[in-house]
Design the sequence.
């Protein structure tokens, strides 16, 4: 599979069967190198919670690419009702569903989830995917929580964790998360977009390498990783 960081908390996961976009925030994202209309052929969009830095470009891309939007029940309903997204799938924490590429489960996140117009956005979540024989965990916006150690039942091969601090866990707590999740590979997310969440990802990677058994990867925005 291929994984591309699109900036902030936006990721593109490509398998043989699907192009899955996570939390698209591109056009108004100062760290993105492409705008939303430059993305094509998106089959599925996963939305972790309602905040605009995760939902801003969902409707534009979904309506143009005829993508399926998968989110919690409240957010899926909101996109269908207010943005005329045709294909939505509402789920909730702990639930899973089969996609052409494999299973996706919505995991707990400790955060908040109001929608841009103030609508109730349900509970925030993350995603655990089983694709092409690998367990991939997108923690999305969350604090550290000890039940994280149960996610994937010990089968997290790739973990994508926030390190920006302030709104989510920071570098220090991400190290504890890595020790619990024991992924083979870990990538940082939700940092560097604006000054309040600036982080030195190289320094984070050095600590991950020294203090955990996981391999840190720090892609630049737009780098395509083969995992
Ligand atoms: Ni958020
Ligand atoms: Mn966020």
Sequence:
């Amino acid at each position: 599979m291929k994984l591309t960081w699109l900036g902030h908390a936006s990721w593109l996961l490509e398998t043989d069967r699907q192009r899955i976009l996570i939390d698209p925030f591109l056009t108004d994202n100062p760290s993105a190198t492409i705008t939303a209309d430059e993305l094509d052929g998106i089959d599925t969009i996963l939305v972790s919670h309602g905040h605009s830095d995760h939902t801003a470009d969902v409707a534009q891309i979904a309506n143009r690419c005829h993508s399926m939007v998968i989110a919690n029940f409240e957010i899926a309903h909101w996109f269908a009702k207010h943005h005329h997204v045709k294909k939505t799938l509402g789920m909730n924490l702990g639930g899973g569903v089969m996609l052409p590429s494999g299973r996706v489960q919505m995991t707990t996140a400790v955060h908040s989830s109001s929608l841009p117009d103030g609508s109730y956005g349900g509970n925030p979540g993350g995603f655990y995917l089983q694709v092409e024989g690998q367990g991939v965990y997108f923690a999305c916006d969350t604090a550290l929580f000890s039940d994280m150690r149960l996610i994937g039942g010990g089968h997290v091969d790739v973990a994508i964790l926030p390190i920006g601090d302030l709104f989510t866990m920071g570098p220090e707590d991400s190290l504890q998360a890595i020790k619990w999740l024991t992924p083979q590979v870990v990538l940082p997310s939700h940092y560097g977009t604006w000054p309040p969440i600036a982080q030195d990802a190289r320094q984070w990677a050095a600590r991950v390498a020294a203090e955990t058994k996981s391999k840190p990867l720090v892609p630049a925005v737009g780098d395509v990783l083969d995992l």
About this structure: The chain has one domain: 2-218. Residues 9, 51, 53-54, 141, 167, 190 surround manganese (II) ion (ligand 2) (CB under 6 Å). The chain has five helices and 14 strands.
